[in-house]
Amino acid sequence: MAAKKSGSRKYGKKAGKKVKKAMHERKHGTLKSGRSGKKVTSKKQAIAIGLSEARKSGAKVPKKKSGGRKKSRSKKSSKKS
Fold first, then answer.
1. Beta pairing partners, 80
2. Measured between alpha carbons, how far is 19 from 23 in angstroms, rounded to an integer?
3. Residues 6+ apart with CB under 8 A from 37
4. What is the spatial distance between Cα 50 and Cα 59, in angstroms, rounded to a whole number?
5. Exposed, middle or buried: residue 38 (CB in 10 Å: 0-12, 13-18, 19+)?
């Protein structure tokens, strides 16, 4: 079976460049996170920062998945002894 081909690229070239830049900064220890300003060491976090910057600059990047919090069931605290 042949793999399904999509018509266009998922991410634009500009997005790739932003992620590459963020990964480079992470490797050299100069990439900082947003509010806290802590040094970023995670590859996943570096990619997320690169994509976020690409979104802000108007590059072609898919929308974020809105995961949000899962609603937990309310636990009934009725213990019978």
1. none
2. 6
3. none
4. 11
5. exposed
54 neighbors 44 (Cβ within 8 angstroms): no
43/38 Cα distance (integer angstroms) = 14
Inter-residue contact 15 to 53 (CB < 8 Å): no
Q: Within a domain: residue 26? A: yes
pLDDT band at 72 (very low <50, low <70, confident <90, very high): low
22 or 64, greater pLDDT: 22
Domain count, the chain: 1
Question: 42: domain range?
Answer: 13-56
pLDDT digits (tens, 9 = 90+) for 31-71: 999 889 999 999 999 999 999 999 999 999 988 888 766 66
Prediction pTM value: 0.67
